[in-house]
TrEMBL record:
The keyword Iron-sulfur does not apply. It comes from the Bacteria. The keyword Phosphoprotein applies. This is Stage 0 sporulation protein A homolog. InterPro entries: CheY-like_superfamily, LytR-like, LytTR_DNA-bd_dom, Sig_transdc_resp-reg_receiver.
């Protein structure tokens, strides 16, 4: 994991570095690579992974709104914290799905709570699962699974790359997929919350998929509540 800090204020960079280091050490976790930048241009020029980014809004040159949008274009799973004294930028920042908004001066306890949420989300997005087929075993991040579909005894795993015919049944997938991200909407469908575009009382539309997943009416309320909790956890 790499955590990046982008701020033109050296004192804020130092404070974030200390808070991040203390959080990982106090929780007996290996501290990730920490990299700091004084402006958006140097951050975007960085060729490494950008897993978690602490981003200032008011900076010389590129402002944080532009940089945040560019980061999300490159990788929609990048977790972005906006760190600023200017709350008027909040609406613009939310447009590129900022994970959290942190106001200066930083509150230590609030920072730690948000770091815990960010790491839980990161682990969910990067967790990998084997897809066992008759041809072989393919290992993919669970975030790339769009939905699981059953046709009689045939179970198909639809991913962002291709479809796989699984040798396992739906119960297997229910047991092994992270429950905070996946939901069985119908006896023949398990969907990934991350890939939902919209839904009504009977169908769910998913990104880049012509097939729509069915939603059982009796599950509508529980599905909707679980989906809203998922969305809240990613804000």
């Amino acid at each position: 994991m790499r955590i990046l800090i982008c701020d033109d204020d050296v004192l804020i960079i130092e404070q974030l570095q200390k808070l991040i280091t203390y959080y990982f050490e106090s929780n007996h976790l290996k501290c990730p690579e920490l990299v700091s930048f004084a402006n958006g241009e140097s951050l975007l020029a960085d060729k490494g992974e950008k897993d978690i980014v602490f981003l200032d809004i008011e900076m010389p040159g590129m402002n944080g709104i532009f940089v945040g949008n560019e980061l999300k274009k490159a990788n929609k799973n990048t977790i972005i914290f906006v760190v600023t004294s200017y709350s008027e930028y909040l609406d613009e920042a939310m447009r590129f799905h900022v994970f959290r908004y942190l106001s200066k001066p930083l509150d230590r306890q609030r920072f730690f709570r948000n770091m815990k949420d960010a790491l839980a989300y990161y682990n969910t997005m990067t967790a990998k699962i084997p897809i066992d087929t008759k041809e072989g075993v393919y290992t993919l991040p669970t975030s790339q699974i769009v939905f699981i579909e059953a046709h009689g005894r045939k179970v198909t795993v639809h991913t962002v790359q291709r479809d796989f015919e699984s040798i396992h049944n739906m119960n297997y997938w229910l047991e092994h997929l992270p429950k905070n991200c996946f939901f069985q909407t119908h006896r023949s469908f398990i969907v990934n919350f991350e890939h939902i575009t919209d839904f009504d009382h009977s169908t769910i539309r998913l990104t880049n998929m012509q097939t729509m997943a069915y939603l059982t009416r009796r599950k509508y309320s529980s599905f909707k509540n679980a989906y809203l909790i998922f969305l809240e956890s990613t804000r």
